[in-house]
């Protein structure tokens, strides 16, 4: 799943793991759950947070995007950092810093402070996700590893859909600040489990000298730069802005540095050569779109329910959580399906379900409520579990055993990259289409239209008549136009996701079927 180079289990591993080993596995599961949950914990309460820290709707996407970008950068670096510091020490440092950054987010009074805190959260939480599989591989015997894998898989899927529900409940019953403060007691428990459940490892500081520093710096500049360009391009009038030109230059420099690392580094930080493999390139492309759908819908749906249906954070969180129900129900079936059904059939079915769920949401109206998302959310959850778990297996099986860790890391970094770019593009598309639909509707309501004149006159009378009544009637008309235009912009977001899914669907045919007898623990 999340990629890290997984060392083989020690020869003396017993047939059954002891209590301390399971404590280590529990720590890995809690860490990955907390990390994935915090991706989306702010989504349902985002309108509240934006109001309190003075951020616009499009600026608010940075609260989610900053976290994802940081995770994208850290995931491929995790195996290297683990070697440098030792697994237990590395995770305890990451947990302690994650706690500090969570407190910083909870105390934020400005957008800048919030984004800095979210970047710190992303860097430190991203380290917890891939190392969960390392713990499973090293602390459990082969016979019990599928149990650990299923436990890990459930946290990766349930985290993003539980986030809006937990964040919404805390926001409505306490304050949005507690969506971040809740990490403090969990982190304390996690540090105790890490200390007891993992053996002490040695530091290898010499690894710092041999690192692919061109690749590390290039990823920060390239991935950070391209996300900012996509996020800010619309507001800055694209290349009419000197800032966009500078950020584009930074992005190009970053990708050039990554390329230099690919050629000259003894061990590139991320092995892009794997993309020359047709089957793996198909997996990676599908992971980009999967990330855009997963994180994009978890952002768009709460925004729609808050702006159009006037839902509070908790109500919106409950709707997002619906997609987690089929994921939880299907998890026990994972080992059976992976052994008996061609993964191309399962992934293809998942892609169809995702495309159908997004297409069904294209026909939203100003009267749509949470009930209109129930069926589509259930379909989306089932499609997600089919795609994500089995694409991960496809990523590992399409490369050699020695490259399995690199393949899993690139696949999962691709999913987060797709989520980050998807969030930026959806926010930009929504802004542009909202403006387009607003003026289109206004132009259709001509001043000489008798029906419009009658409606305005009637509304003016209800507001008391006279110039003041007429002004109030015109404001009411503009408000209705804005509302309808916003709904149409949300529909355009779902149509964009549908088109993206349709375009990549044929890539399923390029996937490589799993070898005979392959099952869940083959990833280890």
Description:
With 524 residues, the chain is mainly alpha-helical. It has three domains: 1-210, Up-down Bundle (Growth Hormone, Chain: A), CATH 1.20.1250.20; 212-268; 278-524, Growth Hormone, Chain: A (Up-down Bundle), CATH 1.20.1250. Helices cover 73% and strands 0% of the residues. The chain has 21 helices and no strands. The protein has helices at residues 19-40, 46-53, 57-74, 78-85, 87-106, 111-126, 128-139, 145-173, 178-181, 183-197, 213-232, 242-264, 278-307, 313-321, 324-330, 334-340, 343-360, 374-397, 404-444, 450-462, 466-504. Helix 18 runs antiparallel to helix 19 (404-444). It is globular, with a radius of gyration of 24 Å. The chain starts with 18 loop residues before the first helix and ends in a 20-residue tail after the last helix. Residues 1-7, 9-13 and 519-524 have low confidence and may be disordered.
One letter per element, helices H and strands E, the order comes to: HHHHHHHHHHHHHHHHHHHHH
User: What's the CATH class of the largest domain, please?
Assistant: Mainly Alpha
Strand content: under 5%
Helix content: over 70%
Keywords:
Growth Hormone, Chain: A, 524 residues, 3 domains, globular, disordered C terminus
Summarize the structure.
With 524 residues, the chain is an all-alpha fold.
Topology:
Layout: H1 19-40, H2 46-53, H3 57-74, H4 78-85, H5 87-106, H6 111-126, H7 128-139, H8 145-173, H9 178-181, H10 183-197, H11 213-232, H12 242-264, H13 278-307, H14 313-321, H15 324-330, H16 334-340, H17 343-360, H18 374-397, H19 404-444, H20 450-462, H21 466-504
Helix pairs in contact: 1-6, 1-7, 1-8, 1-10, 2-3, 3-6, 3-11, 3-19, 4-5, 5-6, 5-10, 7-8, 8-14, 11-12, 11-19, 13-14, 13-18, 13-19, 13-21, 15-18, 17-18, 17-21, 18-19, 19-21, 20-21
């Amino acid at each position: 799943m999340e990629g890290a180079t997984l060392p083989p289990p020690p020869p003396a591993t017993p047939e059954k793991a002891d209590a301390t080993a399971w404590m280590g596995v529990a720590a890995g599961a809690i860490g990955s759950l907390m990390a994935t949950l915090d991706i989306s914990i702010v989504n349902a309460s985002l309108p509240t947070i934006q109001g309190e820290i003075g951020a616009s709707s499009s600026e608010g996407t940075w609260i989610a995007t900053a976290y994802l970008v940081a995770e994208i950068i850290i995931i491929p670096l995790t195996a290297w950092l683990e070697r440098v510091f030792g697994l237990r020490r590395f995770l305890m440092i990451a947990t302690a810093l994650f706690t500090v950054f969570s407190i910083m987010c909870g105390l934020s009074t400005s957008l800048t402070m919030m984004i800095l805190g979210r970047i710190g959260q992303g860097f430190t939480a991203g380290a917890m996700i891939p190392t969960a599989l390392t713990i499973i591989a090293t602390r459990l015997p082969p016979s019990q590893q599928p149990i650990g894998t299923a436990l890990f898989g459930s946290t990766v899927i349930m985290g993003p859909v539980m986030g809006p529900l937990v964040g919404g409940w805390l926001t409505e019953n306490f304050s949005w600040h507690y969506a971040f403060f809740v990490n403090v007691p969990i982190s304390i428990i996690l540090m105790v489990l890490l200390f007891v459940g993992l053996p002490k490892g040695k530091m290898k500081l010499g690894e710092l000298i041999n690192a692919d520093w061109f690749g590390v710096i290039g990823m920060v500049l390239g991935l950070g730069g391209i996300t900012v360009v996509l996020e800010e391009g619309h507001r800055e009038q694209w290349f009419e802005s000197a800032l966009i030109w500078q950020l584009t230059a930074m992005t190009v420099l970053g990708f050039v540095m990554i390329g230099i690392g690919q050629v000259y580094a003894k061990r590139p930080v991320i092995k892009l050569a794997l993309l020359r493999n047709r089957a793996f390139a198909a997996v990676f492309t599908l992971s980009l779109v999967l990330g855009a759908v997963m994180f994009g819908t978890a952002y768009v749906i709460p925004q729609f329910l808050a702006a159009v249906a006037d839902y509070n954070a908790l109500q919106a969180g409950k709707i997002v959580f619906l997609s987690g129900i089929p994921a939880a129900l299907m998890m026990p079936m994972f080992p059976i399906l992976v052994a008996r059904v061609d993964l191309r059939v399962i992934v293809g079915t998942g892609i169809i379900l995702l495309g159908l769920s997004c297409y069904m949401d294209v026909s939203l109206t100003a009267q749509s409520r949470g009930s209109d998302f129930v069926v589509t959310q259930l379909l989306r959850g089932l499609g997600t579990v089919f795609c994500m778990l089995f694409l991960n297996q496809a990523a590992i099986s399409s490369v050699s055993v020695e490259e399995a860790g690199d393949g899993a890391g690139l696949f999962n970094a691709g999913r987060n990259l797709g989520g980050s770019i998807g969030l930026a593009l959806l926010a930009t598309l929504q802004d542009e289409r909202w403006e387009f639909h607003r003026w289109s509707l206004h132009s259709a309501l001509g001043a000489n239209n008798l029906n419009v004149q009658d409606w305005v006159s009637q509304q003016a009378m209800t507001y008391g008549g006279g110039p003041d009544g007429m002004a109030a009637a015109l404001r009411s008309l503009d408000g209705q136009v804005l509302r309808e235009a916003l709904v149409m912009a949300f529909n355009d977001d779902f149509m964009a996701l549908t088109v993206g899914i349709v375009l990549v669907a044929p890539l399923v045919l390029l996937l490589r079927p799993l070898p005979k007898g392959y099952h869940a623990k083959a990833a280890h």
